[in-house]
Write a structure and sequence with these properties.
19% strand; alpha/beta; 5-stranded mixed beta barrel; elongated
């Protein structure tokens, strides 16, 4: 093969190899490369093209270039707007670099130019066979790949030089830079053809493998997704080559966690299916994030993790006593559960429903129970929940679906046996989207919650070890089937003595701490707390009492900051400067006996209250007028009371037709507040009789009870709350149904001893106690 030494301008190329007999467009942008090109154009248009070993490198030396390059002729040159030059070059021959010289503006190289000798192509049959093998392999590659037209085979067939044929075929193949450089470096034609044949054989194997993969992917491809084919093809190629993508690593991590963690069999099966589904999905599919979120949720739930209970009853009892004053029944029930758990290792926890007015400690008691048992605590408020999906979750067919509040709380707790507080369960409402109270049946039923199924997860979760504590203000708003699943524990209103004890033991210290004060900074004088309770708060619990104490502490903090002498002393005399004027100076009860005015007693969601009832008799045509937002039951009680009066006209000294000549107007003040219930029956009947007979009613008497048409007095509920409210208003005589006499024991002893209880079974007994004797000289206007 002839060789000659040449000295040519050097043009380094990034990521590209030019073969002899190959014409290609090149963009030249580097300053020294442009200068080398200009030098070539001034001479014989010849330039040496050599590939760089590192594409990123700017300053090029001989060691940064491959040894073999291509002598090329610049056929056309065009200056571009950005200063670069676009050229069309034709490869002429190979050249081996011996020396490189870095001149001022460009680099030049001294190299041996190698020109293929056509005479060598006819030397042996071995070369002919090698040429035919290469041509046959190239024909197969053209047909399988479809990357170049088959007409290109004609240009290959007419070549009479084996070397040129090898270079032309190599220029058509999409090869890596290193492989193309190896082919360029083959100076010997036989060596070049042999390497080219091996490269073609390797490319044919890849093409056949692609066809196989294409067939497998087409069988799995979803007909609806047209672009699914390309994504699966890439995935299958990576799998065949042993490469792993990010999603594959994620799937592998899920499988490892599945092996390491403990799950019920049905959950393990579901997880396996979902992980396999994630593995099959494309990373670009929108379903990928949905499946990943579902798998993460299942892994996040504590299927087997639980905390050990503190079974030392004495320690638990001390913790409960330390955190809360009173609440004896609730504490006893918790201690009973601990005792049974210690002996029988019972797994089914009780479901406690704490019913009582606001501010009596229902919510804070639940957190104290958790601390006493050594369990995690979860608080979920159900007030205003209208959708069943809030409890059971949404099915995964919905966009943005998530589990319900129950499993969300379990995940937050991190254990399967926390103390779970369902707050304000009586405030749930039913709507078109489902009844959340009905969904709670499964949650709170010990026979069903062993396998609670959330719509999102669609696998059972064991809730039987959860200690459920439910709170409510009004038991009547809870559906009966739901009430049957819970142990009802009533928390009554606090007495004045209990409020005073709670304030001294808990509230003052809490208020000081909340406002940055220390015990030495403020002093409450004798009788101050009692004055706050009686003159500034009138409530069932202690929430407003805490607010008033905090208000005093804020005022004291301001005085300290302004330079006042500590401790700040709060006395009954200066209490007005801290809390302004007292809010409650008199009671709602009447101070003097009046005709047609009776003090009743009522029970509301916020505790007990007194219910002053007024009756006025007017000339009319026998109408019964009721005002004050009275419910249906209370209106029926008024009608029943009137019917009883009509049946007793002679005994009461009334005319037989009195109801035809007068209108009776019954009014209960505070008309903006809805009122209902049968317990005001004897109250309204007594007020009507007083107004009709013009006999005054004792102002120190309050009454409650349901009336029948025959005048019998039936039992009522909430006696303790009602009596405490009457006591706060200064009432000292209580008329109550005889069947409620046993409930008197529930009233605290310090209050019970200051009241006179009069059990009654009939209206005659009510009138005997409540009505005052008729004044002399004053006759009944309706007799």
């Amino acid at each position: 093969m002839p060789e000659q030494t040449v000295c040519l301008p050097l043009l380094p190329m990034r990521g590209m190899v030019v073969f002899p007999a190959m014409m290609v467009n090149l963009d030249v942008g580097r300053e020294r490369s442009v200068a080398a090109l200009e030098q070539a154009m001034l001479a014989d248009r010849k330039i040496l093209l050599v590939a760089q070993r590192d594409d990123e490198k700017e300053e090029i030396g001989q060691e940064d270039l491959y040894e073999v390059g291509t002598v090329a002729e610049v056929r056309r040159s065009m200056k571009m707007p950005d200063g670069s030059v676009r050229i069309l070059v034709e490869g002429l021959s190979r050249a081996t670099i011996t020396e490189c010289h870095s001149l001022e503006k460009y680099a030049e190289a001294i190299a041996f130019e190698h020109v293929d000798d056509p005479a060598e192509d006819k030397e042996s049959l071995e070369l002919d066979a090698l040429v035919r093998s290469v041509v046959d392999a190239f024909e197969k590659w053209v047909k399988l790949s479809g990357k170049i037209p088959e007409e290109a085979l004609v240009s290959i067939a007419i070549l009479d030089s084996a070397g040129k044929m090898a270079d032309l075929i190599a220029s058509h193949l999409s090869l890596k830079l290193q492989v193309r450089q190896q082919l360029l470096a083959c100076i010997d034609v036989r060596e070049r053809l042999d390497l080219l044949y091996r490269v073609l054989a390797h490319e044919l194997e890849i093409l056949e493998l692609e066809k196989k993969i294409e067939t497998e992917v087409r069988q799995q491809m979803n007909k609806v997704q047209k672009d699914f084919y390309l994504r699966e093809k890439i995935k299958a190629i990576r799998k065949e080559l042993g490469e792993k993508d990010r999603k594959a690593e994620e799937v592998e991590a899920y499988r490892k966690r599945l092996e390491e963690q403990q799950f019920p069999d049905v959950v393990r099966k579901k997880l396996t299916e979902e992980i396999d589904r994630l593995d099959a999905l494309s990373t670009l599919s929108p379903e990928t994030s949905v499946v990943r979120g579902y798998i993460d949720w299942i892994f996040a739930l504590p299927w087997s993790k639980e905390t050990e209970d503190t079974v030392e009853i004495s320690q638990a009892q001390a913790a409960l006593e330390r955190d809360h004053y009173g609440l004896k029944e609730v504490k006893e029930r918790i201690l009973d559960y601990l005792a049974v758990h210690q002996l029988a290792e019972a797994k089914t926890a009780p479901i406690l429903c704490l019913v009582g007015p606001p501010g009596v400690g229902k919510t804070s008691l639940a957190s104290s129970v958790a601390r006493a048992l050594g369990r995690r605590f979860v608080h979920v408020s159900l007030g205003g929940v209208r959708d069943e999906a809030e409890i059971r979750g949404h099915r995964r067919t919905y966009v943005g679906a998530l589990p319900g509040r129950i499993l969300e709380g379990i995940r937050t707790a991190g254990t399967k046996n926390p103390v779970f507080l369902l707050d304000e369960i009586d405030k749930m409402a039913q709507e078109y989207s489902g009844d959340p109270a009905a969904a709670m049946l499964e949650v709170l039923d010990p026979e069903q919650n062993k396998a609670f199924v959330d719509h999102y997860l669609d696998v059972p979760f064991d809730l039987s070890e959860v200690l459920w504590i439910v709170t409510a203000n009004n038991l009547g708003n809870i559906p009966r089937p739901l009430r049957d699943r819970m142990e009802i524990i009533t928390l009554s209103s606090y007495t004045e003595f209990e409020k005073l004890a709670i304030a001294k033991k808990y509230l003052v210290a809490r208020a000081r701490q909340a406002n940055g004060l220390k015990a030495k900074d403020i002093r409450f004088g004798a009788g101050v707390l009692r004055e706050i309770i009686t003159a500034y708060t009138r409530e069932s619990g202690v929430r407003e009492l805490l607010r008033q104490i905090e208000r005093i502490c804020r005022k004291a903090a301001r005085q300290i900051v302004e330079g006042a002498e500590i401790p700040i002393r709060v006395t009954k005399k200066n209490l007005v400067t801290f809390l302004d004027k007292p809010k409650f100076l008199s009671t709602k009860a009447e101070k003097q006996p009046q005709v047609g005015v009776v003090t009743g007693m009522a029970w509301t969601e916020v505790g007990g209250d007194i219910l002053p009832t007024e009756v006025s008799v007017l000339k009319g045509k026998g109408k019964l007028i009721l005002t004050g937002q009275l419910g249906d039951v209370m209106q029926e009680s008024a009608q029943a009371g009137l019917s009883y009066i009509r049946s007793r006209t002679q005994e009461l000294g009334l005319a037989d037709d009195f109801y035809e000549t007068v209108d009776i107007h019954i009014h209960l003040p505070e008309g903006a507040i809805p009122k209902d219930g049968p317990s005001a029956g004897i109250t309204m009947a007594t007020a009507m009789i007083s107004a009709l007979t013009q006999r005054k009613v004792r102002s120190d008497v309050a009454m409650t009870g349901e009336i029948t048409l025959r005048g019998n007095v039936l039992p009522i509920g909430g006696l303790k709350e009602k009596v405490l409210a009457a006591y706060r208003e200064g009432i000292r005589t209580i008329l109550l149904p005889k069947e409620n006499q046993r409930d008197i024991e529930d009233i605290p002893e310090e209050i019970r001893g200051k009241l006179q209880f009069v059990p009654v079974a009939h209206m005659d007994e009510v009138l005997k106690t409540a009505l005052m004797p008729r004044e002399e000289g004053k006759e009944d206007n309706h007799a």
